[in-house]
Design goal:
The protein has helices spanning 21-35, 42-45, 49-64, 69-80, 93-102, 118-126, 136-141, and strands at residues 9-13, 84-89, 111-114, 131-133. It is an alpha/beta fold and 143 residues long.
Length: 143
């Protein structure tokens, strides 16, 4: 992006705000152990898995996710500048929403896309010119 082009939209990978991979992995292990199911077949073997994941994430988010003042400032700055902010992740929606809330980012974003092809769907919503940010350092470097 050249210096004369104003940033209008940004698509941020949830991992740039907080890493949910360990929380997801630990929930899968917990669900498999407690419910004695094959976690590769959650929809078939544990139909209410999404609600169970949401509860687990709500209970355990403080252990796995920490608010970061620098990323909060970056999001606030972008929002104040009128930049449309979206977040994408391959994580399940329930986990992503709990993480965004816990990280204090939920009120700063306009759109969330989760699961397979989340980035493509988010870019459709925000526009093809949305800047894609995959790391915390990329987010902090946005001007």
């Amino acid at each position: 992006m050249d210096a004369g082009t104003a940033l209008k939209a940004v698509a941020i990978d949830l991992a740039a705000l907080g890493d949910t991979a360990r929380l997801w992995s630990d929930w899968l292990a917990d669900a498999g152990r407690r419910a004695r199911v094959d976690v590769e077949s959650l929809d078939d073997e544990l139909p209410n898995w999404r609600r169970l994941l949401e509860r687990f994430a709500e209970d355990h988010a403080p252990v796995y996710l920490r608010r970061d003042a620098d990323t909060a400032t970056a999001l606030r700055r972008l929002q104040s500048a009128g930049v449309r902010i979206g977040v994408f992740t391959d994580a399940p929606d329930e986990l992503a929403r709990v993480a965004l809330s816990h990280l204090g980012a939920a009120r700063r974003i306009e759109a969330l896309e989760t699961g397979e092809d989340a980035l493509d769907r988010l870019r459709e919503r925000l526009g093809a010119d949305a800047r894609v940010v995959r790391t915390r350092s990329e987010l902090l470097d946005l001007k």
